[in-house]
């Protein structure tokens, strides 16, 4: 039996133990803690990737994902997917939902602020502004908001968001300069360290040019910044900066 199979059997056992409805025994709590220790990094990584490395949104996505895992633990079917695949799928869906709300909120807030400024140029420009954290606050009842099924309009917006993110990823620079696209793609691979990423990126680097892990970290940061600007611009709520959004003077090239 493969070690992955053993690991999945253990995760399944723990999930079954703490997933029983109404069970608040010491054994169930211990199983939940052990399950968390096994799987937390998987959820954190998936949430960061899906939210384009926005830590605040990733935290919100993981929170929603854990609530949904608690709600759906009894429905897990090992014949359909491993536990890790199952929780990653939940986390991804929650992250996309959080990200969609984030961009939708910013778009609506921008429009509201413009309307307020036009109505009263002398008024407080921030008077009608809504805090983006209002939907990030924890909830006491998991059934209230944990990755609720989106409306048809929101599903369409979520699909648009995913397409935009794919388009922006494909627009990242590659070739002889900093390979931002490959760097970002490699961050999507599970359990891949910066040292591993450096090896992979070095293989695509012109002969005689050496890179290190710190440079790769810089590429990922720069790629993330470009992705955020690109997604914001394509969704139409961010004002383009003077001179365009394709470059950033603060980015450091290797």
From TrEMBL:
- Magnesium: present as a keyword of the record? no
Boundaries of each RNA polymerase sigma-70 region domain copy? 61-102
GO molecular function per UniProt: sigma factor activity
Any GO BP annotation: DNA-templated transcription initiation
Chain intervals for the UniProt region annotation (Disordered)? 110-150
Highest taxon above the source species: Bacteria
Enumerate the UniProt keywords alphabetically.
Sigma factor, Transcription, Transcription regulation
- Read off the SUPFAM superfamilies from this record: Sigma2 domain of RNA polymerase sigma factors
Compositional bias segments (type: Low complexity): 115-132
PANTHER family given in the database record: RNA POLYMERASE ECF-TYPE SIGMA FACTO, RNA POLYMERASE SIGMA FACTOR SIGZ
Know the name of this protein? Sigma-70 family RNA polymerase sigma factor
């Amino acid at each position: 039996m493969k070690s992955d199979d053993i690991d999945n059997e253990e995760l399944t056992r723990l999930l079954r133990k703490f997933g029983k409805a109404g069970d608040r025994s010491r054994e169930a709590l211990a199983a939940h803690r052990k399950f968390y220790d096994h799987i937390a990094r998987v959820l954190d990584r998936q949430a960061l990737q899906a939210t384009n490395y926005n830590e605040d949104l990733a935290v919100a996505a993981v929170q929603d994902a854990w609530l949904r895992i608690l709600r759906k633990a009894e429905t897990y079917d090992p014949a359909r997917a491993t536990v890790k695949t199952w929780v990653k799928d939940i986390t991804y869906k929650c992250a996309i939902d959080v990200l969609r709300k984030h961009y939708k909120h910013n778009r609506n807030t921008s429009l509201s602020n413009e309307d307020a400024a036009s109505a009263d140029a002398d008024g407080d420009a921030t008077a009608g502004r809504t805090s983006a954290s209002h939907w990030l606050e924890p909830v006491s009842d998991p059934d209230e908001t944990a990755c609720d099924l989106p409306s048809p309009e929101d599903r369409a917006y979520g699909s648009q968001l995913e397409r935009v993110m794919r388009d922006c990823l494909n627009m990242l620079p590659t070739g002889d300069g900093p390979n931002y696209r490959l760097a970002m793609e490699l961050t999507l691979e599970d359990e891949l360290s910066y040292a591993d990423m450096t090896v992979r990126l070095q293989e695509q680097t012109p002969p005689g040019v050496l890179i290190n892990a710190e440079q790769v970290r810089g590429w990922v940061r720069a790629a993330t910044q470009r992705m955020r600007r690109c997604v914001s611009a394509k969704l139409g709520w961010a004002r383009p900066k003077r001179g365009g959004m394709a470059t950033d003077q603060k980015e450091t090239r290797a």
